[in-house]
Amino acid sequence: MTMDNETADKTSQAKKICLHLQSQDRRLKKQTYIDLQDFLSNEELTDQELRNIYTETYMYFLNGLRDESEAVREQAIKFVNFLITQRLPLNDFYLTYIFPVLLERIGSVELIETSEEVRLQMVQLLRAIIIKYSNTIQLKPFLNDSTIVLCETVKDKYPAIKELSCQTIISLAKALPKDFHLQSETLLKPVLSCFTHQRYKIRVEAIKAVGEIIMHSTYKGVDEAVVPMAEKLFDQIPTVRQAVAQEASRWLLEHRDRYSYFHKMLPLILTGLNDEVENTRQEAHYLWEKIGLQYQKENEKDLKDKLDYLLELPKNYPSHMQRPNLGCRVLVQRNISKLAGALSNELTNWQEDVRVRCSQLLCSVALHAEEDLTFNLQNLLPAMYSAARDDDKRVVANIIQASEIIGLFVSFTTWSKLVIPVIEDGLHYGHLTVLAGLIEGAPKEHISEAIEQLSNLLAVDYICNSRKKKYQLELLKCIRVFMKKFTKDTNTGYNIFKIITSLISLKDPENVDVLTPNLYEELAQSLQLPTKTDVLIKYSNKLFNHINQEPKLWTPVTEQACIFLTLLAECDEAFGINLDTIADILSQVLDGETEAEMRLKTFFVLAKVFENKDVIFKQATDLNDFLEKLITNIFVPSLVWHAGATAEAIRTMSACCLKYALLPNGEVDLFASGHVLEELMRKMLPLLLSLMEDASSRSREVAIECVSLLKTHCVQKGVWWNDDLLKIYPDVLRRCDDPAEKVRLCALKNLQVIFENVPDEFLQPNFKAHRELIIDTLMVHFDDDNETVQILVLGILKVVARMNPSEMQGKIEIHRSLVANKKGCEEIVNFIQNDLI
Q1: CA-to-CA distance for 791 and 103, rounded, in angstroms?
Q2: Burial of 665 (0-12, 13-18, 19+ CB in 10 A)
Q3: Which end of the chain is more exposed for a tag (fewer CB within 10 A), N or C?
Q4: Which pLDDT tens digit goes with each residue over 190-239?
Q5: pLDDT band at 427 (very low <50, low <70, confident <90, very high)
């Protein structure tokens, strides 16, 4: 009885304190909650006393949660939190009065509680209740109410409430592990809405919440969550991506129906294996290893043979890669068809981040699937071809890496059946990127025999003759891989030579620094030949014959024309062993009916080539015949006068080319016999003399040089006749009055050559008139204002003086009084007296 009176007394005291909660003064109400908390903090109060007090006072203190004053509501929440979590024993009786208020204030679609801080405190109260009643039967009746509240609070605009709501959902799932599945999928959509929040911490908490929800969900929940989770793999914050990997690994390790969802969950962890942040990669590898070992243990009977016999690494396995454990490999291999289908679709996604992550995933899948990827290549390769052309270099790098992995594990016989028909039908540079990767990855002993087949394919004209910039670079990668892989020189060497020549000839302007003749050196090294010259000697003839297709129709942009000019410029000693073919092509290309620009370009290249006669004719066996064809069929027709500026340019370039062809070289005897040279001179001389009257000063200049060179060769062969001299010197002498300074100087320089070694007949008395004409003409120019002209004339006069010194001395005496250049006359006289008489 005493006990009952004591309890009643305490209850009465509590009620007395609560009466102040009916006041209009908010400060008094706030103080009342503090006083009531102090009163209930008395540890002497029994559970029964607390229950009685709660029963008699709840209608007072719970009403404070609806008070108009925010400060009062805050204090009321603090009091309820204290009372429920610290003082009252576990009993669903107390919660029966709390949850309706929470539902009313923060669990309705319409916003009742306007204060963000109060809403946050209410969620904190809810979480505190859930934690205290965790794994108790008393909490089970309030699962639905909790779910309703959290569905709304997780969508709250206040970030702190969102974050705390996600954490509370996890707490609720752990508090009611056997019952949470009844409401888990209800929470999924609201939580997924947080995935796009700007604060990464909220995204992380939402991912963790989804991870917990899925652990209690059916297939519908998994389907709904996988795509948003995958999208978070593209998040810019590493912590977010790390959270995805952690939750995905948990599903793969613990989800009760994980065997049904492996194909959906695997990409979430596999993508993390290639994350750009090292810590994320390391954790993903650790978690994935753990998943594989568990799967291996769970399927130990099925995998017994592989566990016993496949302990060593496969031969040729990349040293820089660590082979995943058997469980990881088998897990991917058994789901490869579904993974490959998704990869094929997403590799060409319009979103850049998706393509990057998908290409990373492809690398991981290829590494795990190994030869089991064979049956899915038909779907994967087309997507890889497209992805290899991606503007993002990261995607391309991943596609190359994946191609190399596929090439390592899948045999050439298998992938070639898919790749070769595509290339034959019309390829783009994406095909070449993948092909180079496949060959790079393939073991040398397995691919070397196939290189010939592949090089034959790429050496076809319509494939290797391309002017596209990126295409050329990828084709270059292919042939460099070929050069690393082939072991013997069958037709492969020629095919690579042909491709290299095409690339150099047709290179895009932006590829000038990459596609250079140095590629011939690379080929020489792979073929174990000393220099590029040996490569050209070995293969140039076959290529010359291959491109010899109607050269008359060539233009400067014709593929065969570009290749011909490149070979011509680069062949060095190989020129001499291809004289017949080159002469045949040149005679057609430089025919009068061929396009003018093509002829000009050919003459220009040929002139440059003739500058190295000691090299190009080093291995020539029938040089005489070649030069005869060249002069008869090419130079003679090209020097004939035709009206028009184009014809004039061709004459000039032809004469320049002839000049370089005639330049003497100590190591090469250009003309085997004087008879041949004499016949050729008879054909060329009239045209060259005519060219000295050409409108182009350059033509006149070169014509003089050519005549001088012909004279030199004729003297060497003993076929320099008086008639030839009488034909030549008057025209050259007239050029001393040429309006172009360069032509005048050229004539004076070459007259000295022409008047040396004159035929004996010219020294006879009956040709005195010619000699006097020469002296008289030269004396006119001896007074030229140009000192260089005076010096050149002095040199010529000294040469002419050797013909008849006394005759020259007499003429000088006659002209001495007529010319201003007294010093020059004196020098000639002294030269005659001291050196000649």
Answers
A1: 117
A2: middle
A3: N
A4: 999 999 999 999 999 999 999 999 999 888 889 999 999 988 988 889 99
A5: confident
Distances (CA, A) of 688 to 229, 656, 699, 709: 84, 12, 9, 12
- Residue 381 and residue 126: Cα distance in Å, rounded? 54
How many domains are contained in the chain?
2
Amino acid at position 664, single letter: P
- For residue 290, is it within any domain? yes
> Nearest-CA neighbor of 284 among 218, 166, 364, 186?
364
Q: Cα-Cα-Cα-Cα dihedral of 349, 351, 354, 358, to 10°?
A: 40
Q: Which of 332, 352, 380 is the last residue of a domain?
A: 380
What are the backbone dihedrals phi and psi of residue 665, each rounded to the nearest 5 degrees, phi first? -135, 130
pLDDT at position 3 is 43
For the chain, how big is the Rg over CA atoms in Å?
49
* Residue located via tokens 């009620």: 15
Contacts of residues 477-480 at CB distance under 8 Å and 24 or more positions apart, as own/partner, are 477/432, 477/433, 477/436, 478/432, 478/435, 478/436, 478/439, 478/454, 479/455, 480/522
DSSP bridge pairs for 665 = 668
pLDDT digits (tens, 9 = 90+) for 253-282: 999 899 888 988 999 999 888 888 899 989
773 inside domain: yes
SS (H, E, C) 49-67: HHHHHHHHHHHHHHHHHHC
Residue type, 522: E
- pLDDT(7) > 90: no
Largest CA distance in the chain: 173
Q: Which two tokens stand for residue 586?
A: 């040149």
Q: For 531, phi and psi rounded to 5 degrees?
A: -140, 175
Query: 293 lies in a domain?
Result: yes
Q: Is the CB of residue 159 less than 8 Å from the CB of residue 199?
A: yes
Domain end: 380, 400, 423, which one?
A: 380
The Cα–Cα gap between 400 and 387 comes to 10
What average pLDDT does this structure show over 113-134? 93
Query: Helix 159-175 to helix 184-192 angle, to the nearest 10 degrees?
Result: 160
In angstroms, the CA 677 to CA 718 distance is 10
Give the residue among 109, 111, 84, 108 at the shortest CA–CA distance from 97: 84
Say how far apart CA 587 and CA 599 lie, in whole Å: 10
**Cα–Cα distance measured from residue 837 to residue 834, given in angstroms and rounded to the nearest whole number:** 6
The structure tokens listed for 364 are 């991981």
In a domain, 830, yes or no: yes
First to last CA, the chain: 168
